[in-house]
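SEVERITY: medium
COMPONENT: batch folding queue
REPORTER: lab tech (J.R.)

DESCRIPTION
The queue accepted two submissions in a row. Attaching both inputs and their returned structure tokens so the on-call engineer can compare them side by side.

ATTACHMENT 1
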Amino acid sequence: MKKALLILSVLGMGVAQTSGAVETTFQPNNTLSQTITNISASSNYGSSRNIYSTNSSAHVYSNDEISQAIDNLSAHAKQKEYQLASLTSRLSYEKQQMTKVIDRNSAPAIAAARASRAALSRSSGYCARYVRKALQSAGYEFTPNPSAYQYASRGTLSNAGFTKIGNDMSPQVGDVVVFNRTSSRPHGHIQIFDGNDWVSDFRQNSINPYSGTHSYTTWRDSEYVDDASNRGIYLAMAD
């Protein structure tokens, strides 16, 4: 008897393998049974069909239909990608158009002109006082600091509406540079660009009024950062 059952079992496996069909049945609940069958037949020229069936209906998807659906999804995704890129470009352009352009009545230009007029021929040791008065004359509001380096370290320039930019950027009218303090210069140094020269309490020959290398930070009115960086507008000062 056991031998007979074994033979029938083997024969059953052979029939299933010969037909080329493998069937798996899932029953997620008591009311619905799902059957997924993968059928391969030589009479179908090597094509295969994926059948999804329930106890009420069945639908057959060919490989061509699945490939077409994937192509449609890919094309839709590319279209959305192009639309996003176009929107990003338009927003960037509109932002540039809205960015203010420096003129002689702008705050950076007013501050630079005041500093340029007040600059001495040589240093008096009061760079912080001269630059502070120039900035306040243009409407920048802040509490004065006793030392020049504190305009950067205490966040004074940042709170007054300035943004720190790279030291390698070309200077623009109204840019402020703050040198860090050192053992030999405990108050640091502060200066402003007037369109031609760097000035503090005196008109300097270069951005660095000292000999040797000294660390510093560069600050620019936040309303003019994009305009200056992207289009390079530098206006010479003229009283």
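ATTACHMENT 2
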Amino acid sequence: MPAVKRFFPAFCFSVLTATCALVGTANADDSASEFSNQDLVKVDVITSEGQFTLQLRPDVAPDTVANFLEYVRSSYYDDTVFHRVIPGFMIQGGGFTEQLQRKKTRPPIRNEATGSLPNLRGTLAMARTNAPDSATAQFFVNLTDNDFLNPNSRSAGYAVFGKVVSGMGVIDAIANVQTGSRQGMNDVPLQAVTIESMSIVNSSDQ
């Protein structure tokens, strides 16, 4: 499954075994200057835990944003779940139904990870396998500043393409749900956290 690995042996989202430490506490509701352009497209996400809003960065990650918006427009994410929740690290969703059935995706996209848009608390990034250009539909929201997910000499990194600009409290509530193992997957919420719908708020290409 699309994954994010930490730099431990045999460690990725699909076989996650280590405890992730809290290493940052930046407030994602304080919109950074790079997210201040009101013309950038926003997406409202309604979940079973409440609503949050994403602001996307097509100026930095055009292919990633276009891919994500195509999934949003097709209602692909409706009734999917956050299937991997790790406090102090990230929440991941966008690929499984409540019954943990994997949804069919379109072909993978190129990795647009860049150091100019790092994996900070509240940022939205694409999940992938160990292959850099393997992201499809699954995404994650960083719960802390995960510097090791940025591109470096050892890794192509994980592409950030947006940020939570309102409703970070909902993200933190999701991060605090009780998790366990289900159907061979770890860190799964024991009570499903469902994405009920996503909708584009404003976009020049609607």
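NOTES FROM REPORTER
Residues 8 and 168 are 29 Å apart (CA to CA).
No errors were logged for either attachment.
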